[in-house]
Write a structure and sequence with these properties.
Helix content: 10-25%
CATH topology: Trna Endonuclease, Chain: A, domain 1
Strand content: 25-35%
CATH architecture: 3-Layer(aba) Sandwich
Oligomer: single chain
Shape: globular
Radius of gyration: 16 Å
Largest sheet: 6 strands, mixed
Number of helices: 3
């Protein structure tokens, strides 16, 4: 089993590439979608466009994937610099064409002290920066499953739970925001700004 911790790794770049490859293999095995690394796409505000490389992508299926294997700090504190990187990824998703599906594929890291995963913290704290139609997938390396959350324009919390079996990852579970709130959070009724 892969371990995406920094300790003992050759470099953070190697950790990132291994995690990207894991995501790429999931899409291929489970959905028959061949994603390519460093997927280039013209993004920008208005008529000002510039080429940007997303971690993974597919022109035919109109999918963009950003992969992050970040964890809580050793003291279970928020990795503030990493959250800035996540915010940047959200901004790139925001600038990308609307007809592309955006998936943020991240490592699931649960804090006993905080009683939430890093993704749950991010969603709770930065939901105002997550573009509409962006999906956040947490990969659980311990149980070999993925939790899947999706936002939408009308109500960012939309309750659906399903299990997908996988010969590669054993089990993936999809968890989307529930109408009663996500992860025990209160209902979220505010309408999000249009992309």
């Amino acid at each position: 089993m892969n371990n995406f911790q920094r300790d003992g790794s050759i470099s953070n770049a190697h950790v990132g590439r291994e995690f990207e490859e894991l995501a790429k293999q999931y899409f291929l095995k489970e959905h028959g979608i061949q994603l390519i690394h460093n997927f280039k796409l013209e993004i920008g505000l208005g008529n000002n466009k510039k080429s940007h490389s997303f971690d993974l992508g597919c022109e035919k299926k109109k999918i963009l994937v950003e992969c992050k294997s970040h964890r809580w700090t050793s003291g279970d504190n928020v990795p503030s610099a990493k959250m800035t990187v996540w915010n940047e990824a959200m901004y790139f998703f925001y600038l990308a064409p609307e007809n592309y599906k955006k998936i943020f594929f991240i490592l699931r890291d649960f804090s006993i002290k905080r009683n939430e995963t890093l993704a749950q913290y991010y969603i709770r704290t930065y939901i105002h920066l997550i573009p509409n139609s962006t999906e956040i997938w947490e990969y659980d390396e311990n149980e070999e499953r993925s939790h899947h959350e999706k936002t939408n324009n009308e109500n960012p919390f939309n309750n659906i739970l399903s299990i997908i079996t996988s010969p590669m990852f054993c089990c993936f579970s999809q968890l989307r925001f529930g109408a009663r709130g996500c992860f025990g959070y209160p209902d979220h009724q505010q309408k999000r700004p249009q992309h």
